[in-house]
Amino acid sequence: MNVLDYDVAVLGGGNAALCAALSARRAGRSVVVVERAPRHLRGGNSRHTRNLRCAHGSPTGVLTGAYEPDEFLADLHRVNGGESDERLSQLLIERSNECASWVEFCGGRLQPALRGTLHLSRTNAFFLGGGKALMNTYYGLASRVGVDVLYDADVVALDLDDGEFRAATVEIDGERRTVRARAAVVATGGFESNLDWLREVWGDAADRFVVRGTPYNTGTVLRLMLDAGAVPVGDPRGCHAIAVDARAPRFDGGIVTRLDCLPLGIVVNRRGERFADEGEDLWPKRYASWGALVAAQPEQEAYCLVDAKAIGKFMPSVFPPIEARSIRELATRLTLPADRVAATVDAFNAAVRPGAFDLQTLDGCRTEGLTPPKSHWAQRLDTPPFWGYPLRPGITFTYLGVTVDENARVVMKSGPSPNLFAAGEVMAGNVLRRGYLAGIGMTIGTVFGRIAGAQAADAAR
Amino acid sequence: MPLDDLTANGARTLTVCNACRYCEQYCPVFPAMEERTTFARADLTYLANLCHNCGECLYACQYAPPHEFGIEVPRTLAKIRFASYEHYAWPRPLATLFRAHSLVSAPLLVLVFTGFMVLLEQLTGSPSGPMRTDGNFYAFIPHGTMVGLFGSVFVFAVLAIGIGVMRFVRDASGRSEDRQPRTADSVWRALRDGMTLRHLHGNGADCVSGEEARYPFRRRSHHLVVWGFLLCFASTSVAAIYHVVFGWVAPYPYTSVPVLLGAVGGLLLEGGCVGLWYEYARRDPALGDPGQAGFDRSFILLLFVAALTGTIVLVARGSAPVLALHLGSVLALFVTLPYSKFVHGFYRLAALWIYERER
After folding, report:
1. Which of B176, B175, B16 is nearest to A316 (CA)?
2. What kind of fold does domain B92-187+204-358 have according to CATH?
3. ipTM for this model
């Protein structure tokens, strides 16, 4: 059997993996990256990202104002409910400060916030051209500094000796190879593309989930580690999921399938009933909560209805709206019970209180005496044309992972591994088990990728 | 492919782009796109001509092949751009004819016009003997004949290009008409960005020739061609002033202004043509439209032959066959100007101008 020998093996090929590989190579180690995807689909979910969240004390080239670590931590606590490893959260935030300069050091280019995302201009540094451009930069640099990359390489077995990494068995084109290394970094993402695993957790509902990212995050290595005695972190049901257009492709639809129009209208299920407060809170909190809300509806499907007043106030989606001159006609075209939808809209319209509509704030437009209420941005649906969009849960990534210590070492039941490290989504559950903060996935990948790479280089000395 | 057949794919592509917007800060195409929610033919020809084909957005695209969306912005816009030159050309059938056979017709026209020059020389040339010039253009073909022939072809070319570009501007600026007055400022900014090729290095680094392969050569070669062409044009203009105003008749000495301008301009043009030819050969084919390779190369070829023979005539003087070839290739170049790749510079400047007015 074909045996490859390196100082450091990095399993995975996204942002965390590349940050680890480049850091280990910088320390002078021989490094191999084992990427499951083919070359043109490399980069995991990072190829769909666009920014990372970083603390900073003063305005930088691409960031406005200041984003102090305390504020970052408070934001994190607000979304995760304080359920996280406090030391690792603080470490993440402290080191997030270096992320932008690390990206630029590697030749990556940053840009100010995109139009329509100005609420992130203070907290998030955007990648020029998005995450795939950044991955190209990292892979380009990796090739120039002599990091080897195996593509289409599926890790099928780990050789761990009492928590110590020895080798990984890798299958490429049906041929098995052994990758031996003195240290390894696991950065293989979550298990959200593994439909069988999703079904184990969610039952039949999983069949109607849209996976927003890469089809290669099957969680194989996560399961191998858990089976070998790694201490799990997070709940298998924990995931970041939003409502996406039901017409989205099963995998890899990325950003263009999202719908920003939910707070501008009402959302009904297949029975034609409202089931949640569409005006509960500002972006991004409401944005991240809709995946679970839609997943709980019959057939995991819902429909967002808006009228002419909303048109032009939200980012265009890649799929055209279903349009009609009346609510009944729209319901029919969406294959919903027209009477029920009309009654829902009538009840909603009757409950809307007058107010000054302002999408930029938690305005005073709300319903009264309606269950569930619409707390803000409530306007009557009365002006044709009416638009409808079908919705499904769109899963971005799962939070179930392995526990790590502050050196990114994987914690086994017997204690921290001497030479097995983890970074990125596969250990994100240490700091975030529910909710989501825009751009924090790339921050976790960059910070812990760099730590894991440097530590692996040390362990491989 | 006719323009209307390309617009469906163009609209589909830009609808994906408009919902993504990650490429927003690469170049003006994306901010201009964001001003629109639907993409009709005029929007697409405008955006296509605003595109400098730098290629960044192909490699950055999460929806590029093999993704099932198969988004290829550089190629999609290149095809629309190519079709737009023909769509707006005046008269259009001539553009269709030349586009369909550009790689054959360019050399053919050079040969035909060279033969025509030889024939003209036989009929009107000096009595000093066939195919002898003694360094004197006008001994080959009398000045009046030359001015009449080249002048009328040139005037026609300017007129035809002008009509084409005006058609384009009228079509493409429908949305910008009521926004901004046609200020001198917008003209100046468009000229500045066009002539400096700002959008081939808009973000500091040079744009790509392949994934993560950044070279300055495509940009530099363009500069060489443009400035070389302008110097040659200046050389001819100065010579015309010498002749008409001062009555100084060619040939001019080696150190004279027309000869110096022509010599330097010719060398720049030749260098630029070689650079462009080489750059096209090694560039990632995914960045362009393979269907227009002949269109691109026939223009480079014509420019190169005209420049090279011109340099030989200037330096070596007196070789009648080279002079005939030079005049023949210049005539072929001029005749095809409104229907060749030459027009892309004008459409680009016009699109940049519309962009500046829309901002």
Report:
1. B16
2. Fumarate Reductase Cytochrome B subunit (1.20.950)
3. 0.94
